[in-house]
Amino acid sequence: MSIKTWFMDFLGNTRNEKGEIIESIIEEKVQEIYYKELAIQTAITLIANAIAKCEIKVYENNKEVKNEIYYKLNVEPNKNECSSQLWHKAIEKMIYEKESIIIDVSDSLHCADSYVVEERPLLGNLYKGVTLGPIQLKKIFKSDEVIRLQLNNTHIKKLIDGLYEQYGELLSYAAKSYKKSNGTKYKLLLDLTKANDENFQKTYREVVQKQLKEFMENDNAVYPQYKGYDLQYMDTKTSTKDSSDFRNLRKEMFEIVAQAFQIPVSLMLGNITNIQDLVKMFLTFCIDPYANMISEEGSRKLYPGYNNWEKGNYIKVDTSTINHIDILDVAEKVDKLISSGTCCIDETREILELDPLNTEFSRQHFITKNYDTVENRLIGDVKNNNEGGEINENKDD
Fold first, then answer.
1. What is the pTM of this model?
2. DSSP-based three-state secondary structure for 107
3. Dihedral angle of Cα 77, 80, 85, 89, to the nearest 10 degrees
4. What are the CA-CA distances from residue 344 to residues 334, 358, 366, 395 (Å)?
């Protein structure tokens, strides 16, 4: 075995009994794959958590109802999953595979693990070979029997993969540079007589090589130096590198994913400074399009046809429940909602995630005297004028 081969083994090659290399412990693209998955999984988690926190409201005849459909969409879609788990799975598959489908099997909603689509632009697609876990269903599902969720931009994943190819090479170079600049190297000087000795290779393998490896691997070790052997430290460091190379590349990769999915970069990186503004941007540009897609696709599949739409039968994903609300922080705003007649007491309690009172008083709408119609205002001004009063244009009731 040559010294070069020995050093290759020392760096991480695993050999079998015949001495053949069977596994390389040091993988060039381990970090590339890790950061790629970390960035995409972070984006998926943010989106899926937000969608799972939404309440999917059901309307029939333009009135909100809590029927069996509401229960399946918001509580228990099937015997093995809660609604949050179902939407997490659906969102993840949609992003990774560009689409996902939710099907109704035995009066339960499931996200299909795999399926084959037969595209039929005019008659509607057919979905064959649908699998749920280890089970493959024999039924062929028609287009109107599945809730199909599609990535709003099918080129997002392709764009990310293309950019990661270039950044992956850069990351691999950074890893090699980091190990090279921070590694410890030695050179073994041999007496010419020893190098020409026929028994040198055998002695080197059985004695010297073993001692060298133990000496270099252990934190505290003693190296016995024989006559004709001189082990010298090699100072190959021109500049000491730290982990900033990895941090910078990680930051850039997270920025790429954040821009692709329209997620605020600070939210992806966890650098939260102005949480209210970040959440508003996140909801407006990232979550609302997904919520609208689920609302429209769910409405046309659960309440199909124009007649249902005309009657006011539909579902709606309510994103207002995503943001955490502190009742003390919004006390003045709640008062404004009630005093302006915008909401009744029960409606504001539901916004605050409090149980409604369900009383006649709590369902009434109130309005202060500061709010009035233009007609009533003019009538009041004319009445005051007829009674000898003057119309005060600057009057503010």
1. 0.67
2. coil
3. -90
4. 10, 11, 7, 29
